[in-house]
């Protein structure tokens, strides 16, 4: 699998007349090498791939990661850079005959490029900015990847159900968030794919609410947005419900969101334009009079990263292709009242899409 | 507090003949505004500060974060960028009279700078790369910040002790890691400041080991590197011990590491050169014959970020100053055997340093 991916990347280097590429983006690194180390932010990398247009690829890292690198990155030569990445490149590149070196412009700091160019000049190498070369490979998932994503989604659903069954007035947002993250890991996930959102009542009006010690009261809205990482692959799901008996306003608004979600889902197929999918869902919300309260895009891709291409937003003219994965997550947010969001994940097929969630919403529309 | 910080930054802008600065680095953003939103990687910001050389500063964000931004960033004007950051800047900068705009070169993607420059050209603005302007302010901690860091360190110690008391053969690395992170959050921490390391036996030979389902056996080394975030401030601590009775090899090596740590601590004072502190500790390890097995630097700064300036490494010629915070964390890593690391945090004083940890090592040297 990894050998095929490298082969495809090398073919793309050849077309661009590049002798090698540096891979700095962590999920691209994992995709191309199997190396799973996590970076502590862009300023602290746990390693960089140097993939020449032919021959053995290199994983450049430091002594803290060398054992993990050697265990995981099969087919790679692991090199240490005790004097830093640029000193290491200066030593390696001439021997590999590299004259034109691609780098990931969208995951390379402006200040680091300056350092790299300074080094490159001394050995007569030209650095060439590239964007999203590996991301374009990642956006179409193989059958195995779709299976892995489905497992991640179903485990996420299971975690939700287990914790959902224990939720009762008196619990705090933080307590529920903790229970979700603990259950994820007890059931085998590597961890959450993003900071779990648990928001009660008016807190649900913040699409990216941070859990607080607010106590759940009967009648409160509960919005939970959660995802986990299972064998590298992410899930992402949002559920909204009411503790106790929902009132008619809530039920009316919930139906609007659910209808919007179904409108989006029914528009997804290979060849559909991303903004048309967003528009189909958005129209339902606008027509119901809530257009001003749906401020974000309809969805995004999911894979090794929880947010990746494609984006289902009002300005995206890109076309969906079979094998892409997207979330469909319409929502409305009313500061004095609260919010509702529903989010599922689906795989794009030639003639439609397949929702990966069990989606037991109990909504009869 | 925040007003003073902004004033200091504005004075620095004046000296550099800049009309405004964009703050993209998340901890700098928090330091200058109080806004605590977390970024999901550099490609997904939850907001950017635009601080003019005089007048009201702006927090630019999107609708997902607007309520949190307005609650937290007192004294800021919150502006949304529904059409993206650069369209928003294009609209705001002319009215503010900005001709020279600083940006954080060390936290700005190469591809984003290209987009910003394209926008800036159309409105006759020059973008000026800067590095570590706010980081240089952050490196010296105030009395209040030192208090906050001490609280974070002591809570971290307490979490360790609580979980330490429950550790027994049969537990896995993942179980102990989970117990630590759960206890952190139950006791009021926002979360871990980095992925908790729990490593048994030979796994402890990886300085950045990832917890596995390896089962603890009597006689195994246990290395735990853990930290938490409490009211924004990070802690970072490593403890190594043996499940059951340690053998003489372990005890001999543990004493070496402890002596190295004390040698480092005894060298820290305002005016000391960072690499001299590293060298004092390293010499103990080299003299004991383990020089090849201590591959990382002695320590690093801690504050709003868990890794920040200053770096106590063999190549750093910078001088320590009073009010800096550093870790002192010598270690040795022997692939066939395991590893030992001890890590405390200390505040640099004029005439020495004050260790913030309780440091109940039970080591009688």
Task: Walk me through the structure.
The structure is a homodimer of 365-residue chains. Chain A has 365 residues and is α+β, with helices and mostly antiparallel strands. Chain A has 2 domains: 2-138, Creatine Amidinohydrolase, Chain A, domain 1 (3-Layer(aba) Sandwich); 143-355, Creatinase/methionine aminopeptidase superfamily (Creatine Amidinohydrolase, Alpha-Beta Complex), CATH 3.90.230. Chain A is 36% helix and 22% strand. Chain A is built from 10 helices and 19 strands. In chain A, the strands form 6 sheets. In chain A, strands 4-3-2-1-5-6 form a 6-stranded mixed β-sheet, with helices on both faces. Chain A has a 3-stranded antiparallel β-sheet with strand order 7-10-11. The longest helix of chain A is centred in the middle third of the chain and has 22 residues, at 143-164. Chain A is elongated. The two termini of chain A are 43 Å apart. In chain A, 49% of the residues are buried. The mean pLDDT of chain A is 95. Chains A and B meet through helix 5 and helix 8 of A and helix 5 and helix 8 of B.
Please name the two chains that share the biggest interface, counting residues whose Cβ lies under 8 Å from a Cβ on the partner chain. A-B, 48 and 48 residues
Largest sheet of chain A: 6 strands, mixed
The H-and-E topology of chain A, N to C, reads as HEHEEHEHEHEHHHEEEEEEHHEEEEEEE
CATH topology category name of the largest domain in chain A: Creatine Amidinohydrolase
